Amino acid sequence: MEVNELKTAVSREVEANKDRLNELSLKIHANPELGFHEVKAAEWLTAFLEENSFSVERGICELPTAFRASYGQGKPVIGLVAEYDALPGLGHACGHNLICMMAVGAAIASKLVVDRGKKGTISVVGAPAEEIWGGKAIMADRGGFDHLDTAMMVHPGTANAVTTHGLAAWPLNVEFFGKSAHAAAKPEEGINALEAMLLSFTAINSLRQHIRSTARVHGVITDGGQAVNAVPAHAAGSFLVRAEDMKYLEELKQRVLNCFIGAATATGARLEFKWGEGYYAPFLNNMTMARLFQRNMQSLGRTVRLARPGKSYGSTDMGNVSQIVPGIHPSVAIAPKKVLGHSPEMAVAAASEAGLKGLIDGAKALAMTAVDLFTSEETLSQVKAEFQAAKKREK
User: How many distinct helices (H) and strands (E) make up the chain?
Assistant: First the structure.
């Protein structure tokens, strides 16, 4: 069968599953679960994949809500990455209910390629906790993506684009321990842990004037005391440090930490800190795959840019995957440009008609790109050669 005929066939297969894909997407949207607690979403997704003849391994990489679903055998192994965690207080304001169904929908449609004689395996990797904990970073460290030859996922947003600009990021948790005392009667006998945290914020605000314009430092106070008339004996906060490359991130980590060390010295509070287990690596775009996806998405009637308008300075643990295997992280527009990511308006868009249209288009484009990779050894070789060359340049 010709490549174009196969693409038409997988596109029709996505369309044939449209109602079920939309139904599951809306079900996950209506039942948002935070990172590492996506019990319902993981079960619904794996059950649907098993219904469609995929072999499923649950709880991979020692993470209960992570999974791997496979169809076919041998090489190449074309990976489709699913995310399904929600944001605290905002639900699916990042559209992960759409991301997971795009991956699953594309995988089910891509079975046709294997069934019609093409060697290889379709692998859906279900990855928990992208939003806060870096689930894919943990999985990458534990070999969760080593079996793949390529990795693809599509993110909903406000633009149709095939590349992403993902900063390296490292989470930091900080605690200050002081001494409680009556805030009015004996304040001189207390050590104010909250003041240490506030001084740290002031120092970080000063530091921002003297770091690269592409770097980011931000955080929240998670504990600032319990009673207004008591000197706070404990304060805690969570922070993220971001940079375009790992070398500058390492430098910036120490400069940020110095802000907390200085605040502890100034107030007399004791500092305890812990850098997160999972850091976010910068995203490495594979342009050979990106252009394949661009052509396939454009064939569905969308105008697709190579890059999003302007620069985005977010981070994704898909960056860690892109450092192991050739990867792409394109976006599909489901909302107007004025709608911000991680906002209530984006949560609404993720369950809208435009959101569900984005789901179907994204699944079709992923499946058609899988066709390109399965049917051309030359194309797959170009993808891998570009990846190896990019990794050498990084060294």
Answer: 12, 12
Q: What is the pLDDT of residues 102-157, one digit of tens each?
A: 999 999 999 999 999 889 999 999 999 998 778 999 999 999 999 999 999 999 99
Closest CA to 45 of 26, 28, 64, 22: 28
CB 217 within 8 A of CB 315: no
Residues 6+ apart with CB under 8 A from 338: 158
Render pLDDT for 347-369 as a digit per residue (tens, 0 to 9): 999 999 999 999 999 999 999 99
Strands of 93-184, DSSP E: 120-127, 150-152, 155-157, 168-177
Say what percent of the chain tops pLDDT 70: 98
The CA-based angle 336-337-338, given to 5 degrees, is 90
Instruction: State the amino acid at position 36 in one-letter form.
Output: F
Q: 């391994």: which residue's tokens?
A: 57
DSSP for 169-199, written as a single string: EEEEEEEEE-B--BTTTSGGG-B-HHHHHHH
Q: Is 314 helix (H, G, I), strand (E, B) or coil?
A: coil
Q: Which of 270, 336, 282 is nearest to 309 (CA)?
A: 336
Which of 288, 315, 252, 279 lies closest to 386 in space, CA to CA?
Answer: 288
H or E element: which one contains 273? strand 270-275
* For residue 76, cis peptide bond before it (omega within 30 degrees of 0): yes
pLDDT grade for 165, boundaries at 50, 70 and 90? confident
